[in-house]
Amino acid sequence: MLIDATSSRPWLDNSDFRLVSVDLAELSTAYPEPVRVHFVGYRRDGTMVATDLLTDGIMDGTGPLSDFQTLYFGPAFSGVYQVQIPTIGYALDNVVAIHEPGAIPLLALGAGIFCALRLRTRKSSPR
Q1: Residue 58: which residues within 8 A CB-CB, separation 6 or more?
Q2: Which residues pair with 3 in a beta bridge?
Q3: pTM, to two decimals
Q4: Sequence-ordered list of residues with C-beta below 8 angstroms from that of 9, at least 6 positions apart, any chain
Q5: What are phi and psi of 64, to 5 degrees?
Q6: In which element (H, E) is residue 1 found?
Q7: Contact assessment for residue 23 and residue 94, using Cβ atoms and an 8 Å cutoff
Q8: Is the distance from CB of 29 to CB of 62 less than 8 angstroms?
Q9: DSSP secondary structure string, 9-68?
Q10: What is the pLDDT of residue 3?
Q11: What are the start-end ranges of the E strands in 64-117?
């Protein structure tokens, strides 16, 4: 996942993920208005998905911790391998992403379970 030009990978195998939610807040009282934060997700097939999340603009003056709000992404943000946030003037925390294993490992897992159940049924049936 790439956030603000700082590269880090959420999984060592560099696999795809689904971006679920993020906590956003206004950066400081210098930004008293709601902030529109732009997210761009990249897929391996070359397609992109983008959305804007808007903070509520409520500044209570005690700092960003009490101002954070959880905002959710739709299903369009699945199957991405990288996300960029080309926006300034916000605070970000608690990015929730779910690992999406590829089709081949899922098929292998399903075949392994099927074979194990088949062998178990064969051993327990009377001859």
Answers
A1: 67
A2: 6
A3: 0.69
A4: 1
A5: -70, -20
A6: none
A7: yes
A8: no
A9: -SSTT---EEEEEEEEEESSTT--S--EEEEEEE-TTS-EEEEEEE------SS-HHHH-
A10: 43
A11: 69-72, 82-84, 90-99
Yes or no: say if 49 and 40 are a contact pair by the CB < 8 Å rule: yes
AA letter at 89: G
Q: Dihedral (C-alpha) 22, 54, 28, 3: value to the nearest 10 degrees?
A: 40
Residue type present at position 75: P
Three-state SS at 108: helix
**More confident position, 127 or 83:** 83
Pick the range with the lowest mean pLDDT from 8-22, 90-104, 105-119. Answer: 8-22
The amino acid that residue 12 corresponds to is L
Quick check: 93 and 55 in contact, CB under 8 A? no
Tracing tokens 């608690």 back to the chain, one arrives at: 94
Nearest to 95 by CA among 26, 36, 20, 13: 20
Bridge partners (DSSP) listed for residue 24: 69, 92
Tracing tokens 């700082």 back to the chain, one arrives at 6
As a whole number, mean pLDDT of residues 23-47 equals 86
